[in-house]
Amino acid sequence: MGYTTQDVHNKVKKLLYSLTGITLSDNKDIMISNRIDKLKRNCRYSGDIMDLLSSVEQGSYVTEFINSFTTNKTHFFREDFHFVDLKDRVLPSFANSGTKINMYCSASSTGEEPYSMAMTVLKAMEDLGKNINASIIATDIDTNVLQYAADGIYRYSKSSKEFPEWIKPQKYFKRRVQKNLAGEEVLIKVNDELKRMITFHVMNLNDSSYPFSQNQFDVIFCRNVLIYFSAEDQNKILKKLFKHLKIGGTLYLGHSENPQDLVHYVRRVGQNIFVKEKEIN
């Protein structure tokens, strides 16, 4: 064979960084081994793993590689205080003015976050008794999870406590019971009103630039994704995103993330909630 398991893992890390900018720490060996098995299944490949990784390096199986090694942990209304802030502080001004609100979800994964944003808009409309014209662009680098998000079908359990008390899932989903070998499971499907609000696209946050206009967005959710990048690359991503956020727009970050160099250009208004006050010089 002529190589060690560590050689394989090092090559995976190098490839993943070159393709996505994502860094894997030294304590991810078990995860890498599991994802290698997933990669081989996705590629229907039974040969030597180093040969497969060399094929990726040469441009084959790139999508399968990225889809196998990206992490997609998410759920509806994760860190729900951000959605409360969106509902109570941000959205009322757009309801009152009639101005369209443009929002961006930078790591949509399987769709729970952008659909939570859309549900928050509909709840604000209900509370305020006014229409809100909202548009959400949601991107991810993983094509598999984007298809899952576009389909909008999820397993549901009343005991999961995934939805906050102020959200009634039955208003936004169609429910159906599906039988399988384990018995029955409840599935919920996103309704068309939510789907019409969201556009899903493939995008790599590590790209040199993004396909948006300057100051395009009133709200940007960039939560629990920066942690997969080096500190230097986190800063670069935030600066690129910042160009597309309007003055007065809101940036939501994950609980373990911070605004890096943007701290001089934003005002903190809540837990990892930042309002853009000026452009970067």
Automatic annotation (TrEMBL):
Keyword Oxidoreductase attributed: no
Top-level lineage group: Bacteria
A Pfam family reported for this protein in Swiss-Prot or TrEMBL: CheR
Annotated GO biological process: methylation
PROSITE patterns: CHER
Residues in the signal sequence: none
Residues that span the membrane, as ranges: none
Record EC number: 2.1.1.80
Keywords associated with the record: Methyltransferase, S-adenosyl-L-methionine, Transferase
Molecular function in Gene Ontology: protein-glutamate O-methyltransferase activity
Catalysed reaction, written as an equation: L-glutamyl-[protein] + S-adenosyl-L-methionine = [protein]-L-glutamate 5-O-methyl ester + S-adenosyl-L-homocysteine
Protein name as annotated: protein-glutamate O-methyltransferase
Biological source species: Arcobacter cloacae
